[in-house]
Amino acid sequence: MTYSTISIQNLDGTIESVLCIYDGYIKNGVGETLLNNYKTRESVLALIDGGTIEALCDSISQDDEESTVFRSSMGEDHVSYWHPSMKDYEKTFIKEPYNYMFIDGVWFVDRISDGFNRHWENLEAVLKSLQ
Question: What is the C-alpha separation between 9 and 31, in angstroms, rounded?
Fold first, then answer.
């Protein structure tokens, strides 16, 4: 298990977040899947609104089980989290090994390998550096 968080900063500055249990890493994991498949505010909100994610796949539709997001069945609550500001999010929300944030149409990542201070990097740039 490689935990991650998936978040969006709303237009009013509030943050909504959800926990993802498996494959949180960037390359061939949650990071690459988010970058390639969740490109709009609406798709990110739909992902977060469903609550805790066990495995993130290409789509949240129910039509194709091969590429559908799997919600947690591991005793995790199906919840999403709300924060009134980025400051509150960074101060109070759990820092997982990988934390993804969608801001103004761009994905960012914060990695625990950078220490416990938040350090947001452009996800696309980070992924390119890992190729």
Answer: 17
For residue 119, the model assigns a pLDDT of 84
Q: What is the pLDDT of residues 38-74, one digit of tens each?
A: 999 999 998 898 888 888 888 765 444 444 455 544 4
Q: Looking at this protein, which amino acid is placed at residue 94?
A: I
DSSP label at residue 11: T
User: What is the Cβ-side half-sphere exposure of residue 14, based on CA atoms within 13 angstroms?
Assistant: 7
Say how far apart CA 81 and CA 7 lie, in whole Å. Answer: 9
Supply 119's token pair.
Answer: 């350090």
Pairing type for strands 4-9 and 98-103 reads parallel
SS3 of 22-34: the string is: CCCCCCCCHHHHH
